[in-house]
Amino acid sequence: MEQLVQLLTSAMNPALRAEAERCLEAAKQQNVEQFIVMLLQVLLAQNLNTDVRMMAGILFKNMFKGRGKTNEAMAQKWREIDDQTRLNTHGAIFKLLLDPNPEMQNLGANIVSNIAIIDLPLNKWPDLMTFLLSDITMAKLKAVVAILEDSSFSVISPFINAIFMASLNLVNQNLNFVPSVIKVFENLVCFKDIMKDFNYRGQIEKFLLTAVQHQNNLIKMSGFQALAVFEELNIEYVFEIQHELAIISNAILATPSNGNDDIIELQKTVMTFWQNVAVFEDTHFKTEVDTGDVTVKVFPVVQSSLIQLVGMVQSQTEEIDSNELCFLAQDALNAMVSVVGTAPLEDLSTTICGAYMNQDWRLRFQAMSVFASMLVKIDEKQSIVKEHIKHIFNLLNDPIPINRATAVYAIAKALTLYPDFFKAEAKDIANKIVSMIEDQFDVVKIAAIRFFSRLNDTETFTDHAFEEQSVKALMEMFIGGALKSNNAFLANQFLTSAANVVRGYESYYVAWNVLGLLYKNCLNTNLFKMELIGSTLVLIENCVLTCNKLFIQNKEVLNATFEIAFRSANASPEQAFMLLGSLCGLLYGEIDNYYPVLMKNVKQWLANCSNPSVFVFLMDLVDDIATNSTQYNNEDYVFIVDQIMKVVRGDEYTIAQKIELASVIGDLLRKCAAGINVYVPHILKLAFDLMSSECDETQESIKAKTDCEFAALYVLSTILQRYNTFPDLLQLDSIIYQFFVLCISSKHFGTHQRMVVFVSQVFIDFFALSTIVSSKLIKSEIMNKNIEKLVQRIDFFTPYGDDRDQFKRLKALIHSKFPEFE
């Protein structure tokens, strides 16, 4: 043990860490059981330095789980470990949870789950939950929370009732446990099977309603955070507590904060909760989820308090931060009115109009903000909107800077919704706001600049407000403002708005003029400094896409743009790669002339690329090069696939990034099959990992899961089509078959018809393999009727029309290869 203690001590010393970690890893690899025994000895040695014990515990914990992901190789070793070592480990963890040192107790709570999620499904830790739920301590309760976070319902279902009873009894005995018990219930609401049970759901609702009425604001906050999870996963049940929750919420929102941060944060949490409910109801209106019109019923209760908070502006001269109370109140008000409809604005219209002329600057601010927040499309009563805009136009001259800025934002929203309704006033409004770009206060300047950026998609208003010459002058003002400004944030606002106006106005004359201004000042101005280069490149890209053929025909400007992108890649890689990608798309076959220099730069950038986000953008550029070039060097793409496969399995890449990289691989496989066949098994494993990624019940998670499946199937489809004569493909029949089993057996299969059709198409590619008849696995699955069950499920969800014809081809193909298939 002394040698292990010395290594653990060295591992905490930066100068000795590398060698110590190497020795620790070697000891683990040599004999994992003996390594675990020694770690447990250190963990339980109360006479040792706490830091050494903690280091041993962290090392033990990370053996099983790192970055929130289970180490499957270690998990398998643990399943095979001898019973005595397992029992010793269980006993050591129990002792840790009762250790006199609170730090060691908490470490034990973190370790429990890592072992529990392996042993509980195997019934190899039968006394765990009994121990945790008896004589409960804070550490034991934290361990229960960790197990609930990491386990499936099937694992924890035998203990649900005991967890409920112990948690509720604990709250009645000691209020100090309330925050941890809230975390228990927050995790319980994640299980649909629990929430379907009326009795369990009722207990959860009752407890959380009690929590959000607690005298302690932090407990209230924890209660609302748990309710946020309840709402996200179980929106259909919120109506059961809407009345009580609305009253509680209003009491919180109406409480004067007097600068108390706890109250302010609680009010923000409450507003965010109701905003999310409203957004869900607005987004999923008349869908399969019946929410009971919660927002419509709650809004009258909280409306006055939200309006009051909208007026809680702090500064006359500074821009409102997106985290300030008044900003969040506007967002919540807008989200709820989007569901409720036009009635609130109609009812308050006279009062709001009167407040525009109030002597109190905050009331004028409040009036404009409430109008903008409550403004939704009301075609039949546009005169109401026009009356408000008449008043707000006068407030563009308000003596208070924040009010002038707010007037601009309010008018922008009205014009966005009603571009045709303000034809007569459009030029006067635009000219007035152009003049405000020169305002002495940045908050007003930024509002004026953003005004044109926000309206960039409203072609009708832009056409009425400006002729091409006027837009050209506005762009010159924006670029001039960026060149002259010493404020990087303001300069970026100028450039961003210029980019948006160019994209929205869609005039090659304006875009070409902007390019001329940029390239005239290209190398000796602020525009290509580090803090502005990203915005400058986005502006160039929008100009390039707008100019299109005119741009391609001018080789001098084209070459200059390539040069700018190449030179900017180190300072602003993502924007530079996007610009180069757009150039590839515009040039299409003509990109061949630039292929050598592009790939030379790609390889140089790859050599210095360690950021996952930048790497994905670079691979998207490679995809654009491959897609649009007619000539290519096969070795280049083999090299690229090799680079992707080296990094993509790492934990530092998100699921979304892995999906993007999988799509790039699919495109490269379609472009050049030769030389990449050696990577096929590894590429299939990557795609299978995407296919088998876990998914909870939130709409976002289900969508992400579907995106994973599409990306995985795209890669599989490409492999089946491009490598259908690959001799080793038959050896991969098991993993390929599991693609279909996982996808078709999913309870979400059928939600997206496009997925059903795509699966049918890829299934055809699979059974079209000439070697498929030699697969023992597929023969067995045919005989056991398992493939028939999969096909029946596809049949059930396949729509009529051409897609049915494809399905019939699938059945006929399987029958032709395996006559016993019916």
Automatic annotation (TrEMBL):
SUPFAM superfamilies given for it?
ARM repeat
Pfam families recorded: IBN_N
Biological process (GO), any one: protein import into nucleus
Q: Which InterPro entries has this protein been placed in?
A: ARM-like (IPR011989), ARM-type_fold (IPR016024), Importin-beta_N (IPR001494), Importin_beta (IPR040122)
Q: Which GO terms describe its molecular function?
A: small GTPase binding
Matching PROSITE patterns: IMPORTIN_B_NT (PS50166)
Q: Does the keyword Protein transport apply?
A: yes
Domain annotation Importin N-terminal: ranges: 20-99
GO cellular component terms listed in the entry, alphabetical order: cytoplasm
Q: Give the UniProt subcellular location, in the record's own words.
A: Cytoplasm
Q: What is this protein called?
A: Importin N-terminal domain-containing protein
Organism equals Entamoeba invadens IP1
